[in-house]
Design brief:
The chain has a domain at about 30-85. Helix content is about 40%, strand content about 5%. The protein is built from four helices and two strands; from the N terminus they run H-H-H-H-E-E. The chain has helices at about 30-40, 50-60, 65-75, 80-85; strands spanning about 90, 95. A two-stranded antiparallel sheet has the order 1-2.
């Protein structure tokens, strides 16, 4: 079976490169945090999207295995409340209530 090879000029700007669907499934508090991070960037005039912010964070991630391991362990040990950036989310006692969004751009 022949393996497909994608070719991209190494000088091509990343935002102009062909897209690949990441098909990510993750905890709801992380998804909400991503929305909060996009909003925070807008506070300083940066117009970005969830897609662009995620790609930027992946690019900025360390490539050192030990650092990556620490980051993964931190995620595994974190609680839902650790993901929320501000106290703007509705709470019912110790229960976080996340707003539902329709699919697509926000």
């Amino acid at each position: 079976m022949e393996r497909r090879i994608d070719s991209i000029d190494d000088n091509k700007p990343l935002p102009a490169c062909e897209d690949k669907n990441a098909a990510v499934r993750w905890p709801l508090p992380i998804d909400y945090r991503l929305d909060q991070l996009v909003e925070r960037s807008a506070e300083v005039g940066e117009r970005t999207t969830r897609k662009e912010l995620l790609a930027s964070l992946v690019l900025a991630a360390p490539d050192d295995p030990e650092q990556l391991s620490r980051i993964v362990r931190r995620f595994r040990m974190s609680k839902a409340a650790d993901a929320v950036l501000r106290d703007e989310i509705e709470r019912d006692g110790n229960v976080l209530k996340f707003p539902r969004h329709k699919p697509g751009p926000r």
